[in-house]
Structure formats: C-alpha cells, structure tokens
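Bit of a strange request maybe. I'm writing a small parser for structure token strings and I need a real example to test against, not something I typed by hand. Could someone generate the tokens for this chain?
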Amino acid sequence: MKLRVLFSLAVIVAATGELHAQYSEDALRFSRSQWGGTARFKAIGAQTGVGGDLSSVGGNPAGIGFFTRSEISFTPEFNGYNNSSSYLGQQTITRGDRLGLANAAVVFHSRAAKPKGAKLDQGWLSFNFGLAYNSTQGFDNTIGYSGTNPKNSIADYYAESATSIYGAPNTLQSGSLERMAYDNYLIGYDNPGGYYFPETDVNNVQTKNDLRFGRQSEVNFSFGANYSNQFYIGASIGIANINYNTSDTYKEKGFNVTENNDYELTYRQSQVTQGSGINGKIGAIYRPIPNIRLGATIESPTWYTIDDSYSEGLDTKYGKNRVDSQFVNDDEFYDFTYKLRTPLKVSTGIAYFFEDKGFISADIDYVDYSTINFAQANSGDIQVISDNNKAVMSKYTDAINFRIGAEYKIDKQLMLRAGYGSQGDPYIPTDSKSFKISTYSGGLGYRINNYYIDLTYQKVSSNSERWPYALNNIPTSIANVKNNRNNVFLTIGSRF
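Reply from user aminoacidic:
Good idea to test on real output. This should exercise your parser:
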C-alpha cells in the first residue's frame, strides 16, 4: 500500500454505461402519472365518462360541460410511504411522509345566448372554461436494502469495467471511476494476463439507500361545451413540469485480501432533473339515454425539454478500529439536456346512473410505452440519444390501465365512494413477475347549500426490483421491493 498515495483527491467522471441507462428509466417514470385531482375522483378513480367534477379540467375536458354554475375547490394531500425490501435474505423497512397540494381548480360557467323563443334545452346550452393545477405524480420516497454478499463485491464491477475499457494502469483515465477504484486499492492489475481483478474478499456487507424527492405537475387550461344536455365536447392545453431529485449512497464493508486490512467504501450518486413541456387533450361524453354516459379522451404526448445533472464520487477508508488510511474524492458533475416525448394515451369510459342514488363507472386506457422517444437538444450527444431510444424499444411495451368506481348517495347531503385501479406492466415480459401499480380507494362526501367537503383514503401498491451493480455473465443480486403508499386527500369547494 505504501507504494501508492495514502490519501488522494481526484475528480470522478460518470461511468458511461450507468449514466446512459438512467434516461430510459426516467422516461418511463415521467410517463406513468396518477389519475384524479379532487378527493371525489381520487376515491372513484374512473372518471372519463362521468363529468361534472373539477377533476375534468385535467382529465376529460368534456366533463366541464356539465357545470351549470361556476365552481372552485382546493385539495391538500397527505402522502405516506412504507417500503419493504428483501436483499440477500435480509429484510429492510423504510417509512416517510409529506404534505402537499394535490389539486386547485376553478370552472367558469357561461350560458349560451339563445334567440328569443328558442327552446332552452336544445342546441348549444353552455360554454365553460376551466383552470387547474394538478399534481400528477409525487416522487418522495426512500428505499433501503442491506445484506451480506457471499459471491462478489462492487470491486468486481470496477475490475470488469476497467478490463473492458482500458489496458495497463497507465492507460486508466485520470479522474475516471476505474482509476479511482485502482488508486483506492479496490482493484489490481494482472500484468501477464492483461486484466484487472478485485482485491476484495466475498462475504462483504452491502448497504444501499436510495432517496427520491420532487413532483410532477400540470397546469391545465380547458374548454367544455354542452349540446342539448346529450353531447359534451372539450379540449385542453397542459403545461407540464418535472422536478425530480435523487441521492443514492452505496456502502460496502469487508476485507481486502491483497492489503490484508478491513475496508469501507462509499459510492455516491445524485441527480437533479428539471423539465417543462406541453400536451393537449380532446374529449367527448355522450348520453344516449339519461342514465348512461359514454366518454372518450385522447391525450397527446407531452413534449418535454429536460435538464439533467448527474454526479458521482467514491471514497474508501482502511482500518478496523481506526482509520489507517483513506481516499477522498470530489464529485464530478455531468450535465445533459435532451428532449423527451412521452406516449400518446387513449381512454374510454362508461358510467351508469341510478336515478338520484349514485352511479357506477369504469375506464380503460391504452398506452404504448415503446413509443417513448428521445431527441437532441442544444447539440447534445447523439450517441446517448440513440442508446436510450434502443433501450426503450428493447425494454418497454404497450399496457392497459383500468379503473372501476362507484358513488352512493346515502341522502341528499352525504355520499359514500369507493374505487379500484390498475396501471399495466410496461415492461416486455421476461418472467412471471408483474410490475403493475394497484390503487385501492374509498371516501366520503358532504354537501350543504353551495359548499362541499370530500375526504378520501387511497392505498397505492406496486413491486419493483433494484440492484447496486450488475456483472456480465454473473447473476445479479436483486433487492425485491414492495412499495406501499397511504394517501389522504381533502377537498373543500364552493359553487358561485
């Protein structure tokens, strides 16, 4: 060890393979938003064919054609998460919560002018306009997993990468992750064989903590019209925003065989992503008979411009009871700007109304995630764009989302609601595992004169897989994660 510098300061350059891979995963993340807006439609779920709720401003814009008065509401939310991870036979639980604003919306009702003597219930009856802020997805989450790996170390990954990219140690790029792993005594070089090897032993303790925070949201401008209380049409423009941040830390403790000493390494990754985009929706609702409503919506792709800043760094210290030596490295930042087009979404819905006792509704969405597309912005790296478009085509497929819900009027003032929804698995099937998202919801509503209050509880469950690193031709140690979110929404609104 004395032949190398005991304390080093260096700049880390992001590993190309890891960096390029993240964009396709982010694109999928930004393409899977939650439905609803107000607590009422958060409880029911299926809204395409219902209308008459402020959620329609950001959902099916034809729904605002049902309004006969102007209306305004605000919906704060409480989000809690509870994640259970299994990695190398060890269970890890992470929890957290936050407060936020789910929805704020207003619809302005405008009665259509009628010539004197015309029938008041035929022809164009109203033209309504809506404005809404809608939180389409919250990213706040922490996932942790830990276990003892009897087969390999992240040093195996560093050695594999160095062997595939570089030659002898004098060819290692200054400031590269592979160079730092070599300088940190994590990998060595076999001169006759011409390959790098890990200096670490197996049965090392690996711990990964992934922190996520931020929000995806839209501001919607909508128009809806009512024709003869039978046909409703609408259109909207959405201004979308992304604020997504990550802070990931990987720690590994074990024994360095070559140096005959205990080691502890810390590998840091962080990401700050900001983006804005625009989309559009057109929708219609048809009432063939008073009790039935048939709805349809076409939501265009969202065209984003995204600024992404990624950084990583690697530190290592040696010694069991005290620090014998350590290697500390500055993080290197990698900035990249790109354009992203999310998939088009087509939705249909039906609602059946039981006179004045409530209704039952159902929705189906079709989304083809393989149509996600990257494009250059500001002369960005075309190879990165090409690699991620290929990754999209190789990993993602189309999916069906469905929702079903109901509202029951206990009396004229009190309502009971419930719903269930499922977002289909976007991945090309490789085994029996499913990565759909299931949503269970229930709530109450209370109306008095021109005021109302709605309360909804929502549970969102999904499964995911994570791994700290991947090796060629060697099975990856995978953390199986069960994700559960417990959300509460409260809507306070008024007609005016």
